[in-house]
């Protein structure tokens, strides 16, 4: 009988992101899910301390990292997947609908270098597809709504849900990014909540819900069904869409939205260097009111 995965979590407080090292205890093969690149927005510098902590844990456990898996193109942190790949030879995987996200954002950043066929990634996963981490079978679930490309990775009774769900006391992900859809998000969540009640769900983010003074990122299907403040049993699709739409209208853009998207749609790579050898991130400027005279 195949053993379940060994799971180690790594919380990055500056971006409220949880990355995971997921390993097969039998073969010692492992994957890193949603690795974080440390990015100083004020200084425009990057560091690899967070990714190195994951690599160190893998080395200490005797694990060989063969996958760097993204649940989607994140809008709140830059991906360290290319660094993981450079250090380990791991393949970078993401849902096949990343091509939709690339097509949406290519003109936003005038990213003429960007291919929109997903070929910057090593593997594009289809809904229902399976692959292996050693002897562990991973099932890919397409769970759009937050973005068109979101996927969850299921390993037996464990699911890494990305940004689709949060802890029950916090609720659900926003659906107002380009290509997002609150109705799709509701249906994706319902798909997750039809899994067996004891299924363990691992979040990609936590923000400390009001009244909770600690971070948390693991729950179960049963707990989400009973207590998720946005989609507990009895909440209809129309009720959810109305709530999510109204709530999203009050939310600010994530602080790292612009750098994150243009890096992550390139599989974590920065735009090509300019003639002076420097890489630049683009910040589109929205002109409002009389500012068009500037």
Structural overview:
By secondary structure, the protein is an alpha/beta fold. The protein has a single domain, classed as Metallo-beta-lactamase, Chain A (4-Layer Sandwich), CATH 3.60.15.10. 23% of the residues lie in helices and 24% in strands. The protein has seven helices and 15 strands. A six-stranded mixed sheet has the order 1-2-3-6-8-9, with helices on one face. Strand 11 (136-142) and strand 12 (151-155) form a beta hairpin. The protein starts with 5 loop residues before the first strand and ends in a 30-residue tail after the last helix.
Report the span from N to C terminus.
68 Å
Poorly predicted parts: none
What's the number of helices? 7
**CATH level-two architecture:** 4-Layer Sandwich
- What is the third-level CATH name, the topology? Metallo-beta-lactamase, Chain A
Based on secondary structure, the structural category is alpha/beta
User: What is the radius of gyration?
Assistant: 19 Å
CATH class assignment: Alpha Beta
The neighbouring-strand order within the major sheet is: 1-2-3-6-8-9
Which overall shape is indicated by the principal axes computed on the Cα atoms?
globular
Keywords:
alpha/beta; Metallo-beta-lactamase, Chain A; 6-stranded mixed sheet
Brief overview:
This protein is α/β, with parallel strands linked by helices and 294 residues long.
Layout: helices, strands, pairs:
Layout: E1 6-12, E2 17-23, E3 29-33, E4 36-40, E5 45-47, H1 49-61, E6 64-69, E7 78-79, H2 81-88, E8 91-95, H3 98-105, E9 123-125, E10 130-133, E11 136-142, E12 151-155, E13 158-162, H4 182-193, E14 200-203, E15 218-220, H5 221-227, H6 237-248, H7 257-264
Helix pairs in contact: 4-6
